């Protein structure tokens, strides 16, 4: 029986029909809460519902100097500005901490600096206009402070605004390509750490013995993940006084606030992410159709690559993955596609080990995942076909041409409408990921 489907593509939708498949299943995230009253939820989260910690008003006092670490624009989907305002108002109005004692430190890691307008967006107008300062972290600053070395040999250099002050971190938790989960300790490394600290930690994404990613590293992988464990050790060296962890639903509405002990509260947020976005599947499918979820999630190929990483997990080795990403701004992220040259010349692994970067590793991992399946990409004219062809992807301009090349007769098919949100997992992986946090 023929079934019709419609998936988001840029600011519009693309429709197609499937006929003759053995089975068709749509994969979506599990139902998630939406917090309707943020103010009330925040007050509960920092007072009566704190996790493995005293309430926030017992941890800081009016005499304390406070540094609030927030994320940069690449994490603005979690709308930390709303929570940041709640926190600053609480510190000032409830606890009595003067505004001049409060500094906002933006955890840029190695990302580019913000304009003042960007800073105001990240903090919100109220916070920007009232606190003593809003400061971008500089990973190359000469005054970074050495707070110790992890068991993995990572020398932890940290922004001086986190030393001798009470540190509160606001972060967003999601599945993460290398660290297992984002948020939490990532506010420290890479957020406010030195470049060499970040490089040493992230370089553990590569297998020390083979030309491949380290199999212990990947989304959902918690125990024995050297990147995660190293980050947690670095966070413990600094020991922030309080952690605020945000989880949002696929509509970017706040769904959970997990506050309290820096490590334990973050781990609770990881459990919620795995429960909501981790999707156990009995078997991988022969053919998978995935949309990034439309604009702005498919603004460029780099932005849409998360959908590729997630969807590949649902397709059988050597199967077919049809990906919809309009890429109205083309490829995106020059530092991602700069790695095409070593790929074409056959020394990608060697070059990445010599000069490791985050964008370079995401490119490396994308190439690894592309080799697992036959990838057909529907994208607009702004994306140069030669770029993705060299990575192993066939680009199409029309869905009709893709459907002419896809055989679904007697095949098992998955449809994933929001590829960036759902992380399909075999039942064995789902059980392991859920129990080891």
From TrEMBL:
InterPro entries the record matches: LarA-like, LarA-like_C, LarA-like_N, LarA_C, Ni_dep_LarA
Source superkingdom: Bacteria
Pfam families assigned to the protein according to its UniProt record, in alphabetical order: Lar_N (PF09861), LarA_C (PF21113)
Domain Lactate racemase C-terminal: 283-422
LarA-like N-terminal domain residues: 9-208
Alphabetized NCBIfam families for the sequence: Ni_dep_LarA (NF033504)
Record's protein name: Nickel-dependent lactate racemase
Taxonomic source organism: Coprococcus intestinihominis
């Amino acid at each position: 029986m023929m079934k019709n489907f419609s998936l988001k593509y840029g600011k519009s939708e693309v429709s197609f029909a499937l006929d003759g498949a053995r089975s068709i299943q749509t994969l979506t995230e599990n139902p998630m809460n939406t917090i309707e009253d943020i103010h009330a939820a925040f007050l509960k989260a920092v007072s009566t519902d704190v996790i493995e910690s005293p309430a926030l008003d017992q941890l800081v006092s009016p005499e304390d100097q406070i540094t609030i670490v927030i994320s940069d624009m690449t994490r603005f989907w979690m709308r930390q500005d709303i929570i940041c305002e709640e926190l600053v108002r609480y510190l000032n109005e409830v606890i009595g901490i003067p505004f001049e004692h409060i500094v906002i430190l933006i955890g840029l890691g190695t990302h580019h600096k913000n304009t003042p307008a960007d800073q105001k967006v990240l903090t919100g107008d109220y916070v920007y206009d009232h606190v003593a300062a809003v400061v971008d972290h500089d990973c190359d600053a000469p005054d970074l402070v050495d707070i110790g070395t992890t068991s993995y040999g990572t020398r932890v250099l940290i922004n001086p605004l986190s030393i001798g002050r009470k540190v509160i971190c606001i972060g967003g938790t999601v599945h993460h390509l290398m660290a297992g989960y984002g948020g939490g300790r990532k506010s420290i490394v890479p957020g406010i750490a030195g470049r060499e600290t970040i490089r040493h930690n992230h370089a553990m994404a590569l297998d020390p013995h083979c030309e491949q990613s380290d199999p212990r590293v990947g989304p959902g992988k918690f125990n024995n993940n050297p990147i995660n464990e190293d980050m947690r050790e670095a966070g413990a060296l600094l020991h922030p006084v309080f952690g605020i962890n945000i989880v949002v639903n696929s509509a970017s509405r706040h769904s959970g606030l997990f506050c309290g002990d820096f490590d334990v509260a973050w781990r609770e947020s990881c459990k919620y992410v795995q429960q909501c976005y981790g999707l156990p599947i009995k078997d991988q499918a022969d053919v998978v159709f995935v949309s990034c979820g439309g604009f702005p999630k498919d603004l460029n190929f780099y932005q849409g690559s998360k959908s590729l990483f997630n969807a590949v997990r649902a397709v059988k080795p050597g199967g077919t993955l049809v990906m919809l990403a309009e890429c109205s701004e083309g490829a995106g992220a020059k530092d991602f596609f700069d790695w095409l040259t070593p790929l074409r010349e056959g020394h990608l692994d060697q070059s990445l080990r010599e000069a490791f970067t985050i964008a370079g590793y995401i490119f490396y991992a994308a190439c690894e995942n592309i080799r697992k399946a036959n990838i057909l990409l529907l994208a607009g004219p702004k994306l140069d076909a030669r770029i993705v062809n060299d990575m192993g992807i066939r680009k199409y301009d029309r869905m009709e041409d893709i459907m002419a090349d896809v055989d679904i007769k007697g095949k098992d098919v998955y449809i994933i409408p929001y590829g960036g949100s759902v992380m399909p997992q075999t039942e064995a992986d789902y059980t392991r990921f859920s129990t080891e946090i």
